[in-house]
């Protein structure tokens, strides 16, 4: 039953429930549970909008403003992406979440041999500033913020975003961009890493430092517990690892003589909503509280707003099934409910067809409508943190807090996150957990509606797949990108390109911040492959740790 | 002493896609089914995969592809395998593989396709049936 | 070919006999240490160093077989995968297949094959040493023992008895605190160790090197490659190489002999009708176990009348 462990007696009644984070659930909760845990309102909850923000970051929460919705957009050529951006904005979306194709994510140009067959496939293909100019044409960059789903080359894309805005006549102080820029989580989960760990962390540090000094409205890092969870981490580990990763970045920036107070307010998070409903709600409430406490006690941050755990709670990709894909529409609605009950500031929902393809306009719109229903139809905006005071939810939140701290302590004892990722320890841990979970699903120990344990029903799948509209790869994207690239290489000022790349290399080799140099490279129309190439030559590439 | 042959499998991640959860859990499942599994790691070129398969003398290559590029990748890899004389190695593919592409892959010479959601039991059964020794 | 060795294919014996005469040119390096000390990363960097000298390099990475399923994930290769397409590098993962100490005769056989193929440096990576009959020192010409600072690995090394067998000691991840302390500790222990081989005279005794490395960024790896190469030179100059080879060949011979004998015995136990008769007789007390064992042994190892010296 679900993603928790349920032990039943012979009549089918539930005897024991254990959540993925390792918390045992009682048949019923009462005041004695809160008393036993030493719960007090002021210490553990605080009023909405008050430290430690367990209930909400803002006193009025959804009453003053519904959540911001962001759907992952971008595919094919910059032209097509631009059309999609405009459609999403016309449909009421107030922020963009940009997807890049794999060659761009990995710092290769469209004409690189490794890019073959991948150009424009899972996101838009960006080779140079030209492509960004096309993608963001007509978008009010001073009003619409953009999340950039990019990590290893996040510094390059941030610079490119700034250069684009400048080309359009905006000032860098006006624009707001949130690159994902969480390289350590890529090393645990999503795999779009290039450079060795220490250089990866340095680039993150460079971008934070630059944002503090030059881009007042941008948020340089979005910490993604999300992908760590997708890779097999428990909900408690999802939060714990994201926080330990955050600490690695904070430490890097603090070494540069910048106070945590000056930049932690710019961090945002991306967490997953998939799993047991109550466990998710407790997770988010505990996370808000722990983050504030950690910043206050360990980093001496005092300003209230800078203690906020801001971010996106959404997605839920791992929870979706390939079988009976339409079930995912309902599943997504429950995940979104969890996010709303947790007071998610920003949210997004995986489209029901994600197991097959990247979302089509129809499925993306369905997700958006699901989110709107919660806010505008069902009543989730009525009152702040409606579950507060529930014996169960408050006890669970306290227990979750403990579990998260436990997981953080384990990482610290093993030398911190950078060490744990370099040695491959965390990767092995989440993989083996993912394996155990998958075994449980297949044996029927964990239940997923619409999924027959240990059996793939190919016939059913054939009909199920009929519900999904496949997104065809278009060879034309690559042709067009390559042609554009050729033209760009011909038309640009070679000397300007070479000079700016040389200056970049010097900065990369030393300990100067690479960001201003990248902006210059972008303006000179240096390509992503050329800029990343400078980093590749200077830093080398990461050797993945052993897996066993 | 009796011969002690074990099935050796190379689980490989071709191309730029970095989603390795599926590849890793299948590797673990095959280990538990008594296979000797070599895992290639991420971002492998087809040449790296071919060389590794040859040096490691594997019986089966299991490609994990999530990016949607399975058709061009398999086509190219099969041509390279022929060129290198790796005729005895069976090629299998898993990952995000739409149902309608399975016949196309088989026609190309892919020995078995295990789309996401295939149970471990079916994968090991399928792999075992490829090896007749 | 290595595949046939691992599978204990009956044809392999003849093939190996043929290859044996072509082998004997490679320098075999053993790299051993606890899990997590960075052996694979270190080997990855060592490959690069040896390739700079234009040496052909082969690596045999041995990983334990799961005692539960008999399967294994051979994951050491991952750290070296960038060398996969270099024609001068051959990387082969092997599962221990139940052998204690991680090494089996198959590893030695595989080394012979790679040696005959013309690889000049053969690096064997294995977890632990000194616990089994057939450990890394009976295989390698030079053994590197990898530790990391602050783990007390040096002390563990003494306890495990591998201090006696190391030729090069490596304190990897030496950017960590206590690296110098580890080096000092190792040096001190080495100075107190007994001569590893009484046949070797004191004058020509190799003083083990203790080196600091940071495998991840290549620091100290050049020095490490040089340490192995100078150990190689040292052994050659002092005729130690030949001596080591001779000793190792004797051990190899004895292992094969034991294997062959055991193989014959097992075959008899599994297939012979006579053997089943013996079992029945023991159960019915018609013969005592001691006499029965003697009878079977004499039957299986039917001592040939021909003199061995007439065969050689």
Characterization of this structure:
Chain A is of the alpha/beta class. Chain A contains 21 helices and twelve strands. Among the domains of chain A are: 5-66 and 180-443, Alpha-Beta Barrel (TIM Barrel), CATH 3.20.20.240; 490-539, no CATH class. Chain A has helices at residues 31-36, 41-45, 78-90, 102-105, 129-135, 154-167, 183-190, 197-214, 225-230, 235-254, 277-299, 327-341, 361-378, 391-413, 417-422, 425-443, 458-465, 475-491, 494-509, 515-523, 528-539, and strands at 5-8, 14-18, 24-25, 68-69, 72-73, 95-99, 145-149, 177-179, 222-224, 268-272, 311-314, 346-347. In chain A, the strands form four sheets. A four-stranded parallel beta sheet of chain A has the order 5-6-7-8. In chain A, strand 5 (72-73), helix 3 and strand 6 form a beta-alpha-beta unit. In chain A, helix 6 (154-167) crosses helix 20 (515-523), helix 11 (277-299) packs parallel to helix 12 (327-341) and helix 19 (494-509) packs parallel to helix 21. Chain B is α/β, with parallel strands linked by helices and 133 residues long. Chain B has one domain (8-130): Rossmann fold (3-Layer(aba) Sandwich), CATH 3.40.50.280. Chain B has five helices and five strands, in the order E-H-E-H-E-H-E-H-E-H. The longest helix of chain B has 14 residues, at 70-83. Chain B starts with 7 loop residues before the first strand and ends with a helix. Chain C has 312 residues and is α/β, with parallel strands linked by helices. Chain C has two domains: 2-239, Rossmann fold (3-Layer(aba) Sandwich), CATH 3.40.50; 253-311, no CATH class. Chain C has eleven helices and eight strands. In chain C, helix 3 crosses helix 7 (221-237). The longest helix of chain C is centred in the C-terminal third of the chain and has 32 residues, at 240-271. The two termini of chain C are 27 Å apart. Mean pLDDT of chain C is 85; it is low at 129-133 and 198-203. Chains in contact: A-B, A-C, B-C. Chain A binds chain B through residues 102-103, 105-106, 108, 114-118, 121-122, 186, 189-193, 230-232, 321-323, 355-357, 431-432, 434-435, 438-439, 442, 453-456, 458, 461-462, 465, 470, 473, 544, 547, and chain B through 13, 15-21, 24-25, 27-29, 39, 41-43, 45, 67-69, 72-73, 96, 98-100, 115-122. Strand 2 (36-39) of chain B pairs parallel with strand 3 of chain C.
């Amino acid at each position: 039953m679900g993603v928790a462990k349920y032990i039943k007696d012979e009549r089918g009644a539930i005897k024991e429930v254990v959540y993925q984070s390792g918390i045992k659930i009682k048949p019923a909760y009462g005041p004695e549970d809160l008393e036993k845990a030493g719960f007090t309102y002021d210490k553990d909850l605080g009023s909405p909008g008050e430290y430690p923000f367990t209930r909400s970051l803002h006193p009025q929460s959804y009453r003053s403003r519904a959540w911001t919705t962001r759907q992952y957009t971008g595919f094919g050529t910059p032209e097509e992406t631009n059309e999609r951006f405009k459609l999403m904005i016309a449909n009421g979306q107030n922020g963009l979440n940009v997807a890049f194709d794999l060659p761009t994510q990995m710092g290769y140009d469209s004409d690189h041999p490794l890019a073959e067959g991948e150009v424009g496939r899972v996101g838009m293909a960006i080779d140079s500033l030209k492509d960004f100019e096309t993608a963001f044409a007509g978008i009010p960059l001073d009003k619409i913020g953009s999340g950039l789903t990019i990590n290893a080359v996040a510094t390059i894309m941030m610079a490119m975003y700034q250069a684009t805005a400048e080309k359009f006549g905006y000032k860098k102080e006006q624009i707001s961009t949130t690159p994902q820029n969480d390289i350590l989580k890529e090393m645990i989960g999503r795999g779009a890493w290039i450079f060795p760990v220490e250089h990866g962390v340095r680039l993150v540090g460079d971008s934070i430092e630059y944002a503090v000094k030059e881009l007042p409205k941008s948020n340089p890092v979005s910490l993604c517990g999300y992908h760590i969870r997708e890779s097999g981490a428990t909900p408690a580990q999802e939060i714990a690892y994201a926080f330990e990763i955050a600490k690695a970045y904070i430490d890097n920036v603090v070494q540069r003589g910048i106070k945590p107070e000056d930049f932690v307010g710019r961090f945002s998070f991306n967490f997953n909503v998939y799993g047991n409903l109550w466990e998710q709600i407790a997770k988010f409430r505990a996370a808000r509280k722990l983050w504030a406490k950690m910043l206050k006690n360990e980093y001496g941050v005092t300003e209230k707003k800078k203690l906020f755990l801001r971010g996106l709670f959404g997605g839920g990709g791992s929870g979706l099934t390939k079988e009976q894909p339409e079930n995912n529409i309902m599943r997504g609605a429950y995940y979104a409910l969890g996010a709303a009950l947790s007071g998610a500031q920003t949210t997004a929902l995986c489209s029901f067809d994600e197991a097959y393809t990247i979302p089509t306009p129809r499925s993306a719109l369905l997700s958006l409508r699901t989110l709107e229903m919660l806010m505008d139809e069902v009543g989730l905006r009525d009152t702040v943190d409606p579950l507060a005071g529930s014996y169960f939810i408050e006890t669970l939140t306290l227990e979750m807090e403990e579990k998260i701290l436990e997981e953080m302590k384990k990482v610290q004892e093993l030398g911190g996150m950078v060490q744990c990722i370099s040695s491959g320890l965390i990767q092995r841990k989440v993989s083996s957990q993912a394996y155990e979970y998958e075994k449980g699903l297949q044996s029927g120990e964990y239940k997923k509606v619409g999924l027959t344990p240990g059996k793939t029903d190919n016939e059913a799948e054939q009909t199920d797949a009929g519900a999904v509209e496949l997104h065809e790869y278009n060879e034309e994207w690559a042709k067009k990108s390559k042609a554009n690239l050729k033209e760009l290489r011909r038309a640009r000022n070679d000397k300007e390109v070479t000079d700016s790349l040389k200056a970049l290399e010097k900065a990369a080799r030393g300990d100067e911040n690479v960001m201003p140099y990248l902006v210059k490279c972008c303006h000179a129309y240096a390509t992503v492959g050329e800029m990343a190439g400078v980093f590749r030559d200077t830093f080398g590439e990461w050797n993945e740790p052993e897996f066993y | 002493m009796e011969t002690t042959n074990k099935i050796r499998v190379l689980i490989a991640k071709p191309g730029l896609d970095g989603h390795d959860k599926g590849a890793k859990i299948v590797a673990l499942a095959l280990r538990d089914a008594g296979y000797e599994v070599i895992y290639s790691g991420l971002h492998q070129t087809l040449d790296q995969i071919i060389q590794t398969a040859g040096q490691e003398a594997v019986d089966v290559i299991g490609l994990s592809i999530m990016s949607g590029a399975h058709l061009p990748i398999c086509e190219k890899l099969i041509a390279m395998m022929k060129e290198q004389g790796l005729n005895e190695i069976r090629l299998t593919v898993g990952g995000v593989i739409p149902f309608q592409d399975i016949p196309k892959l088989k026609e190309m010479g892919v020995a078995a396709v295990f789309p996401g959601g295939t149970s471990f039991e079916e994968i090991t059964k399928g792999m075992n049936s490829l090896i007749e020794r | 070919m290595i595949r046939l060795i691992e599978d204990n294919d009956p044809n392999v014996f003849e093939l190996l006999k043929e290859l044996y005469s072509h082998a004997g040119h490679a320098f075999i390096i053993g790299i051993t240490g606890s899990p997590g000390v960075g052996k694979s990363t270190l080997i990855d960097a060592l490959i690069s160093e040896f390739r700079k000298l234009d040496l052909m390099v082969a690596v045999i990475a041995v990983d334990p077989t799961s005692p539960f399923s008999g399967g294994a994930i051979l994951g050491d290769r991952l750290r070296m995968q960038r060398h996969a397409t270099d024609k001068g590098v051959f990387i082969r993962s092997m599962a221990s297949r139940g052998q204690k100490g991680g090494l089996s005769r198959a590893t030695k056989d595989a080394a012979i094959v790679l040696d005959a193929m013309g690889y000049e440096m053969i690096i064997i990576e294995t977890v632990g040493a000194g616990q089994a009959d057939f450990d890394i020192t009976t295989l390698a010409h030079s053994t590197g023992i990898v530790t990391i600072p602050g783990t007390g690995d040096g002390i563990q090394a003494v306890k495990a008895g591998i201090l006696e067998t190391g030729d090069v000691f490596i304190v990897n991840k030496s950017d960590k605190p206590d690296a110098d302390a580890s080096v000092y500790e190792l040096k001190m222990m080495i100075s107190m160790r007994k001569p590893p081989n009484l046949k070797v005279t004191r004058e020509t005794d190799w003083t083990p090197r203790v080196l600091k490395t940071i495998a991840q960024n290549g620091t100290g790896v050049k020095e490490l490659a040089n340490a192995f190469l100078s150990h190689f030179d040292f052994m050659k100059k002092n005729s130690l190489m030949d001596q080591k080879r001779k000793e190792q060949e004797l051990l190899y011979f004895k292992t094969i002999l034991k294997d062959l004998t055991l193989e014959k015995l097992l075959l008899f136990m599994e297939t012979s009708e006579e053997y089943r008769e013996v079992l029945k007789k023991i159960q019915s007390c018609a013969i005592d176990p001691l006499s029965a064992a003697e009878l079977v042994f004499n039957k299986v190892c039917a001592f040939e009348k021909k003199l061995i010296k007439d065969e050689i």
